[in-house]
Design goal:
alpha/beta, Rossmann fold, three-stranded mixed beta sheet, 6 helices, 12 strands, globular, binds glutamine
Length: 204
């Protein structure tokens, strides 16, 4: 199998360091991306958890919004966790907390902060299509859920139990992957390894 290449982590705000660390653990060369030249030099990109509204604002300030959209449209493999999922969504549910705009790319509608105040943060064991082995421990922190999946995208993970059972929390569309939860916080590298395989097999 060919080399995974360079994977960038958008480093404007959020838990950048955790993604860099786990990408390194699964064998990728991980670099921070803050400038258009840095974006141009990566083979895949991770959008970290954080605050999606802040990340969009900073992307605009750093002249990254246009280049990010162009690279996503051009087929750059991108993985978004939590706020990163919101950034990859084509649509944001108006019933959730509003956000002016996203980067877009995945044919989904997300609802921000969807799980409500009482369960701002919780953990669940999940099965994700395409990830083998024991269930994945998923950490949700003021997480979005996927309200609606359009015909181009595919739901690959759902909440298994409790009040929110059945809610879609992981999606894939071609080279784009998004999870409501934060695999970078658990030390389980399977989601990042899965993304690295997507990068390896993408057209470059
Ligand atoms: N609530 C945040 C947002 O809407 C996402 C939280 C997270 O990334 N942990 O952007």
């Amino acid at each position: 199998m060919r080399d995974v290449g360079r994977i960038g982590v958008l480093a404007l705000q959020g838990d950048v360091r955790e993604h860099l660390r786990i990408l390194g653990e699964v064998g990728a060369t991980a670099v921070t991306v803050r400038r258009p030249e840095e974006l141009a030099a990566v083979d895949g990109l991770v959008l970290p958890g954080g605050e999606s509204t802040t990340i969009v604002k900073l992307a605009r300030t750093f002249d990254l919004l246009g280049p990010l959209r162009e690279r996503i449209e051009g087929g750059l493999p991108v993985y978004g966790s939590c706020a990163g999922m919101i950034l990859l969504a084509d649509r944001v549910d108006s019933g959730g907390s509003p956000i002016e705009e996203t980067f877009g790319g995945i044919d989904i509608t997300v609802r921000r902060n969807a799980f409500g105040r009482q369960v701002d943060s919780f953990e669940e064991d999940l099965d994700i299509d395409g990830i083998d082995g024991e269930p994945l421990r998923a950490v949700f922190i003021r997480a979005p859920w996927v309200q609606e999946v359009g015909p181009s995208a595919e739901a690959i993970g759902h909440v298994a139990t409790g009040e929110h059972a059945g809610r879609i929390v992981a999606v894939r569309q071609g080279g784009l992957l998004a999870t409501s939860f934060h695999p970078e916080l658990t030390g389980d590298g399977r989601i990042h390894a899965y993304f690295c395989d997507m990068v390896r097999t993408a057209d470059r």
